[in-house]
Specification:
209 residues; seven-stranded antiparallel β-sheet; 7 helices
Length: 209
């Protein structure tokens, strides 16, 4: 595997070794475990998620990450590319960290050949549900559906192409930007432009379990 992937995987295993409630377990982590991007439904999946959080904190420390990001007016996957290089980490791990620290209401969709490969990742203040699940095709009019190269510009798309219309009143449009990677892989960032803090807090409160 690539060195950036190796470094994150080693940090993940350090998490199992150092977190007190992990040390009595025997682990043989699979690719699925390392890709555990959200809190799991089982104790095992939960521990894998915790190990990934540990790895992110260790390899992409908050203070240094925010300092290197600097003050930016709007989200952009170019920030992720720059930080990925600076910290010698994979684009995906850096993008997930970016969601939590950049302060924008964003969501990431991971795909290969126009097919979603894993559950989307959302920033804490992204208050909407996505109608996008693994093994499902991305919207046909999305930039994620084409074979591109490098980083695309932002594209305005009807929000109901990506967002679940039954969960909450949707904005008319959503901004999307796709980073095309090797072998047909792509990361698409969805951004609710102009969503204020009060509106975000209200939406989040309404969607709590």
């Amino acid at each position: 595997m690539r060195s950036t992937r190796q470094r994150f995987t080693i940090a993940h295993e350090f998490g199992h070794f150092l977190l007190p409630h992990h040390t009595q377990m025997n682990y043989q982590c699979s690719n699925k475990d390392i890709n555990q991007g959200e809190q799991g439904a089982t104790p095992e999946a939960e521990r894998e998620w915790e190990a990934n959080r540990f790895a992110a904190e260790l390899m992409l420390p908050k203070l240094q990450f925010v300092k290197r990001l600097g003050k930016v007016a709007a989200p952009c996957l170019s920030h992720v590319q720059r930080l990925s290089t600076a910290f010698d980490m994979s684009v995906e791990a850096t993008a997930r960290r970016y969601l939590n620290l950049a302060g924008f209401p964003c969501c990431l969709v991971f795909s290969k050949g126009g097919i979603i490969t894993k559950p989307p990742a959302k920033s804490p203040d992204f208050a909407y549900w996505l109608c996008a699940t693994p093994k499902q095709k991305v919207p046909s009019i999305s930039t994620a559906a084409i074979k591109g190269n490098g980083l695309d510009d932002f594209n305005e798309i009807a929000s109901d192409e990506w967002l679940d219309t039954t969960s909450h009143k949707l904005p008319n449009h959503i901004q999307e930007q796709t980073l095309y990677q090797d072998d047909g892989y792509a990361i698409t960032m969805l951004w609710i432009e102009g969503q204020g803090l009060d509106e975000t807090e209200e939406c989040s409160t309404g969607l709590q379990w």
